[in-house]
Amino acid sequence: MGRFLALLLLFVVAAGSLLHREVDLPTYGSWVGQLPGDLILKKGKTTIFLPFTSAFLASGAVSLFLSLFRRKGN
Question: Which among 10, 15, 46, 45 has a CA at the least distance from the CA of 32?
Answer without folding.
Answer: 15
